[in-house]
Structures are given as C-alpha cells and as structure tokens.
UniProtKB/TrEMBL annotation:
InterPro entries tied to this protein: ADH_Fe/GldA, ADH_Fe_C, ADH_Fe_CS, BDH-like
Domain Alcohol dehydrogenase iron-type/glycerol dehydrogenase GldA, first and last residues per copy: 11-177
Source species: Comamonas testosteroni (Pseudomonas testosteroni)
Protein name (Swiss-Prot/TrEMBL): Aldehyde oxidoreductase
Domain Fe-containing alcohol dehydrogenase-like C-terminal: 189-384
Cofactor: Fe cation
Similarity-based family: Belongs to the iron-containing alcohol dehydrogenase family.
Keywords annotated in UniProt: Oxidoreductase
Superkingdom of the source species: Bacteria
GO cellular component: cytosol
GO molecular function: alcohol dehydrogenase (NADP+) activity; butanol dehydrogenase (NAD+) activity; metal ion binding; methylglyoxal reductase (NADPH) (acetol producing) activity
C-alpha cells in the first residue's frame, strides 16, 4: 500500500520570529469584539502581555484568565458564558497548548446550539461553526497553534476527550521563540517529549513506502534529540529555541501523518493516566511509549528497525537486539529530559490500572493502534509493563 487519499486544511497564517507580536493588530479586525484568553498569568510577568497591550493600543477587550493545564470543561464554560454575554466575535489566545486547546473549545461552544459537552462526548465532529481566533504561542509542545484538534478534561468525571474540526483552525499564530526563555525546565522538557511522541505516533507504524513523510518524521526526531539536549547547556541560544518551537509545530501539523497509517494508542492511554493521576500530558506519554513499542514490536518491526538505524544510528546486532536498543535509547532520552519512564517514578502502583482500562472502555477505546488490534487486555498489559 502506498499513500491513501488525504486532505490538508491549512488556512493558518504563521508569524515566526522575534518581534512578531507587534503585528497582531493587522491580523485582528479593527471593530472586533475581542476576548483575550490566557492561563496562570505568567504572560504578565514575562513581558508578553505588555507587548500585546502595545500592539492593540486603542482597542477594548475582555480578559479571561485561569485556563488550566489540561483545560477543564467547567472553567471553559465560564468563558463561554462571558463571551456570549459580551457578544465576542474574535478571540486571542496567549499561552501554550492548553490555553489554545481551551480557546478552540470556547470558540466552538459559543455558537453551539446544544449541550457543549456533546462537542467532546459525541466522538464525531458536531461543530459546524466557530468564533474566529488567533494565538500567541508561549510554550511549544502540542502543535495546537497549527492544527484543528483540541483535548479537554472534565476532572469531576475523570474524562479527558478530544475533538477535531476545521472550523477551529487558528486564523493566525505568532511563534516568537524568545517568549520561551523564561519557561521552567519542566515545561521545556514537556514540550520536547510531547513533540517527539506526536512524531512517533505517525511514524512508528508499518511501512507504506511514504518516503517523504518518513524523512520529515526522522528529521523532526533528530532535531528534537539534538536540540532537546542542547537546550540544557545553551539555555539562552535563540536558534535552539526556534528549532524546538518549529519542530513542535510541524510535528502535529498534518504533514507527518498525511496519507499514512497512524497509531495514537500512546496518547489514548496517556490521556487516561493524566485524567486519573493528574500528571502532565508529556509525562504520561514518556511512560507509555517505551512499553507500547515493546508490546507491539512484531507489528511495528520494519519501522522500529528503520527508526533504530536512522534516528539512533543503531545498525549492529540482530533484529531483536536492534529493536531493544532503539527502545532503550528512547527511554534513556526521555529520562535525560527529566521524565521518569515508569509509573513507579510517580509513586503509582497497579491498584488503579483496572480503573484506567475501565475508562478506556467507557470512552470507546476498546481497539487501539494503527491496526486497531490493541485490545483492552493489551492496554492493561502495556500499563502493567510500564510500572
């Protein structure tokens, strides 16, 4: 099999580089009834909000802050109520993937006629329109600034669900690498690992002779390994920050996975771990991926061998030894980025694993992976191996 038919939606305008925040006034209609969304307030301390204020001098807007990591449905519905009351017709999101994901939901929920929870729970797109929005990225990780997907949590019910719609593609995204200089080390590590796993989910499946996508994926993985290591020794190097930021954006832009089989089982398991234990999204991915690759080594054999040689330079030994070495290298890189790769690293034992698989079942995740052959029993085995 070669490439399947595919469609890429890409109306988002990227404004990349230092100083690009100053250009947002040209991207937002002059008469817009504007809402600005953000997270915990770091943008007030790192100078980003002041740049926005100058760029939008003379405009009036409504602010909504406090969007959490793993954005919570209840918080977002408060923003929806404000936006409806103020008749908001354009939104500017300032932050990382959680703020942008949350803003996508807000944009879709404002005009939605039914219960907005249906946007997530329907497991199919019910979004036919959305309030337009743009974003200023301050934490590279999820690629949400350049794609049509979002993941939203509902902590009180233990749900973490995604939705996708071309209507929530950002109209523009500002990517200024200098905004990342004040990020804590944990956030930088999260971004590198998240982008790395996004790439492997679209690459480590089975071969369909898609050489362009393979080479894009391998280039991203090599970049993330190289720059992920350099960021600790060269924290003030703008080129390192720029490469990480662009790699994270491209990783989930649709280009890597266009027309090729995709996995996403690591993300589905990771979402349940995040919802149940409150760990960061990337932390859950670092735990699941090595265990999943080992469990699925037969179905992924040819790609794992390609990954071993092209990304990690592993060409010696028999096939099993090379696959073992590639998985070990992946695990070691995550650990090098400060990410434990076992649940025990977070004090988690096997007492809650049945609850995790029950949530997978509840969310319709009975069959996962590129071949839809990872059963609930397999998911339980992968989690057990990740202890």
């Amino acid at each position: 099999m070669i490439l399947d038919n595919f469609v890429l939606y890409r109306p988002t305008r990227i404004l990349f580089g230092e100083g690009q925040i100053a250009a947002i006034g040209q991207q937002i209609p002059a008469n817009a009834r504007l809402m600005i969304t953000y997270g915990g307030g770091s943008i007030m301390r790192n100078g980003v909000f002041e740049q926005v204020r100058k760029a939008l001098a003379g405009r009036i807007w409504v602010e909504f802050g406090g969007i959490q990591p793993n954005p919570a449905f209840g918080t977002l519905m408060q923003a929806v109520e404000v936006a409806r009351r103020e008749r908001i017709d354009f939104i500017l999101a300032i932050g990382g993937g959680s703020v942008i994901d949350g803003t996508k939901f807000i944009a879709a929920a404002i005009p939605y006629g039914g219960d907005p929870w249906e946007i997530l729970a329907a497991r199919r797109s019910v979004v036919n329109e959305a309030v337009p929005f743009g974003c200023i990225l301050t934490l590279p990780a999820t690629g949400s600034e350049y794609n049509a997907g979002a993941v939203i949590s509902r902590p009180e019910t233990g749900d973490k669900l995604d939705f996708h719609s071309e209507h929530v593609l950002p109209r523009f995204s500002v990517l200024d690498p200098t905004t990342t200089f004040t990020l804590p080390d944990r956030q930088i590590a999260n971004g590198v690992v998240d982008a790395f796993v996004h790439t492997t989910e679209q690459y480590l499946t089975y071969s369909v002779d898609a050489k362009v996508q393979d080479r894009i994926a391998e280039g991203l993985l090599l970049t993330l390994v190289e720059e992920g290591r350099r960021v600790w020794s060269e924290p003030d190097n703008p080129a390192v920050r720029a490469n990480i930021m662009w790699a994270a954006t491209v990783a989930l832009s649709g280009q890597v996975g266009a027309g090729v089989p995709q996995d996403w089982a690591t993300h589905m398991l990771g979402h349940e771990l995040t919802a149940m234990y409150g760990m960061d999204h990337a932390q859950s991915l670092a735990i699941v991926l090595p265990a999943l690759l080992d469990h699925q080594r037969e179905g992924k054999r040819s790609k794992l061998l390609q990954y071993a040689e092209r990304v990690w330079g592993i060409s010696q030994g028999n096939e099993e030894q090379r696959i073992d070495a590639a998985i070990a290298a992946t695990r070691a890189f995550f650990e090098e980025m400060g990410m434990p790769t076992h649940l025990s690293g977070y004090g988690i034992d096997d007492s809650g694993l049945d609850d995790v698989t029950a949530k997978l079942d509840e969310h319709g995740m009975q069959l996962l992976g590129e071949r839809r052959n990872i059963t609930l029993h397999d998911s339980r085995q992968i989690l057990q191996a990740a202890l």
